[in-house]
Amino acid sequence: MRLFPLMILALTACADGRQDLDGDGYCANADSCAGEALPGDCDDGEETISPAAPEWCDGLDRDCDGLVNQPSAIDADPWYVDADGDGFGDPSQLAKSCGELSGWSRDSTDCDDDVANTHPGAVDAPGDGVDADCDPSTAP
Questions:
Q1: What is the pLDDT of residues 117-129, one digit of tens each?
Q2: pLDDT tens for residues 58-101?
Q3: Distance (Å, rounded) from C-alpha 116 to C-alpha 130?
């Protein structure tokens, strides 16, 4: 007996002409669009998901492009190439990612990414003329 009132309610909601079910300005497809709604909503039950929504690193396709956790996500982390594998990255070589990138570092303070023993915190050898610790004020 309870199913009958719920069924009537569902039919009323569909029959009222409102095709953008979550109110985000997009409907599921062109055949169901009415009024001002645009087609392309991949989840018409969630107002934070539509073709105009920003992408986040949350495992959901919020912008309806078929991809998740894209480098263009608002909260994607910056990563820097770590060519010498010392854990410090080159500040001039940036990429964004929702997850760890192999061969990259979250630290962008390497002053010579071609030499593994040249990075912040390294020991400057006296008299060698190399700024191994990336601190010009302590360069030998």
A1: 999 999 988 888 8
A2: 999 999 899 999 999 999 999 999 999 999 999 999 999 999 99
A3: 13
If 0-12 CB within 10 Å is exposed, 13-18 middle and 19+ buried, where does residue 79 land? Answer: buried
At CB < 8 A and 24+ separation, what contacts does 118-125 make? 118/84, 118/86, 119/86, 119/87, 119/88, 120/88
Q: What is the pTM of this model?
A: 0.69
Candidates 55, 59, 103; CA nearest to 79 is 103
What residue ranges in the chain does DSSP mark as E strands?
Answer: 26-27, 38-39, 77-81, 94-97, 104-105
Please answer whether residues 56 and 74 qualify as being in contact, where contact means their C-beta atoms are separated by less than 8 angstroms.
yes
The token pair at 58 is: 């949350």
